[in-house]
Amino acid sequence: MYVPKHFAADESVVRDLLAGHGAGDLITSTAAGLLATLLPFIYDPSVGENGVLLGHLARNNPQWKTPVLGEALAIITGPDAYISPSAYATKREHGRVVPTWNYVIAHVYGELVIHDDPAWLDGLVRQLTVKHEAGFAEQWSVDDAPEAFVSGQLRAIVGVELVISRIEAKAKLSQNRSGADIDGVAESLEARGELASAEAVRAAKPNK
C-alpha cells in the first residue's frame, strides 16, 4: 500500500478500526486465480504476536478449501467520503484545489487457518452476535433459536482464522491541508450527514 508519511495510521487508529469495523474482504491468491469474500470479522489482539481475525464462510464457498498461495489478505475499511474543493478555505484564496477522497483502511496479511469444528464455530457466532447486537434495544441471542436449528446452521459454515503477520494501514483525512481547510472539510462532511468521516477528520487534525 502506498502510504505517504502524513497519512500513516497510528496504532490506536488501526486498533479501533479492526475492533470496530463491520465486515471486510478476505482475498486469497490461488492456482485458479484470486478469490474474495466479504465477511464479518472478530479481531482478537491477544492471540499470537499481532493478533488474529476470525470469521466464517459458507461451506459451499470454494474459497475455504482452495489452497492459498502465500499469505491471505483481509481489507478492512473505515469511514470514507468524497471531498469537494468547495470545502477548502484556500479555494476562496487562490482556487488551486482539486477534489479528493478521504478514507481509513487497513490491509491485514497473514496465514489462513481453517476451523471445521462446530464448537469453535459456536463460540465465534456468539462473539459476532454479541458485537453486532450491542446497539439494539432488544438484543437477539443465539440461544433464542432452537438448538437443533442452530446445530444445522453451524454445519453449513466453516471457520477461518487469519493469523496476522503484518498490517499496512492508511488514514487519509486531509492532514496535508491547512487547519482552515481541515475545519472546512469536517464542517462540509457533517452538513452532508457523513458524521463518522467528519469525526475522523477532526480526530486526525495535526497539532500545528
Oligomer: single chain
Q: What is the chain-wise order of helices and strands?
A: HEEEEEHEHHEHH
CATH topology (level 3) name: Pnp Oxidase, Chain A
The helix-and-strand class reads alpha+beta
**CATH class (first level) name:** Mainly Beta
Global shape: elongated
CATH superfamily, please? Electron Transport, Fmn-binding Protein, Chain A
- End-to-end Cα distance, whole Å, is 27 Å
Write out key terms for the chains shown:
single chain, 33% strand, 7-stranded antiparallel sheet, alpha+beta, 7 strands, 208 residues, elongated, Pnp Oxidase, Chain A
Could you give a quick summary of the protein structure above?
With 208 residues, the chain is of the alpha+beta class. 30% of the residues lie in helices and 33% in strands.
What do these coordinates show?
By secondary structure, this protein is an alpha+beta fold. The protein has a single domain (about 5-80, about 100-175), classed as Electron Transport, Fmn-binding Protein, Chain A (Pnp Oxidase, Chain A, Roll). It has six helices and seven strands. The protein has a seven-stranded antiparallel sheet. A hairpin with a 2-residue loop joins strand 1 (about 25-30) and strand 2. Helix 5 (about 180-190) packs antiparallel against helix 6 (about 195-205). The two termini are about 25 Å apart. The model has no long low-confidence stretch (mean pLDDT about 95).
